[in-house]
Amino acid sequence: MSFGTVSLVSVIVCMVLNDCIDADxxxxxxxxxxxDSFKNICHKIGWxxxxxxxxxxxxxxxxxxxxxxxxxxxxxxxxxxxxxxDRTLVNEGNGxxxxxxxxxxxxxxxxxxxxxxxTKKGSIAYLCGFVDGKLTAYVGIENQSSTWENTxxxxxxxxxxxxxxxxxxxxxxxxxxxxxxxxxxxxxxSGC
Length: 192
Known about the structure:
19% of the residues lie in helices and 41% in strands. By secondary structure, the protein is α+β, with helices and mostly antiparallel strands.
């Protein structure tokens, strides 16, 4: 350490000791003034915390999560149909609309989505995830050999406020989607 740095550190130590001795006598204003002096000295010697001191603007502690099922069995569902999981069990933040089958991000963030669907033997079923009209996550089954089968997929993606996510039939008409074993859920990952 240079002589200047040693001197500066000595001054800081003396100021801290002096303020600790007089702590009972300090007013709120005096304390803040001393604190600002210490911050300025630390800045001058090049020592500053590496973390941000800016408040997180959009983290308000609100939960954004939904889970929805089908209320009835779907048959002969044409290609390009958006699946409306219309029996909503949870919809914190009101991002999911069961009437359209679309989730709209209420705030910017990273979101996780998971969906599963139940089909019967011989099925060809591609239920893919779309974000703002773009096919983003593929999943499907073709010429299913078991009597009944679940197919699942998940997606973690960064979304802007107002971006939309939904599940849509891709590739071909789906003969049957069983209601009791088919669902869609999603939530915002915590960033705070």
